[in-house]
Amino acid sequence: MKEACGRMGMSYSKGWKIVNRAENELGYALILRHHGGRSGGSCSLTPESISLVRRYRALEERVKKYADTAFQEMFTEL
C-alpha cells in the first residue's frame, strides 16, 4: 500500500481512506492486511479486488473502442 500510494504521489493516509471507503461501499474487502511485527506488515489484493480491476479495465477498453468508432463516424472529415 505504501509503495502504491508513493507511485501515485498520494499520502499513505489518504490511500487508506480511499480503500476503506471503497470497501464499505462495495461491502467486501479489497485488501488483505497483514499487520506488522518484526519484519513489518504487508498487504495483498483479494480475489474480489483483482476481479474488480480486470472488469474495470475491460470496461475502459470497451468504452475507448466505442468512443473511437463514434468519433470516426461523427468527424469523418478530420
UniProtKB/TrEMBL annotation:
InterPro entries named in the record: Molybdate_resp_trans_reg, WH-like_DNA-bd_sf, WH_DNA-bd_sf
Q: What is this protein called?
A: LysR family transcriptional regulator
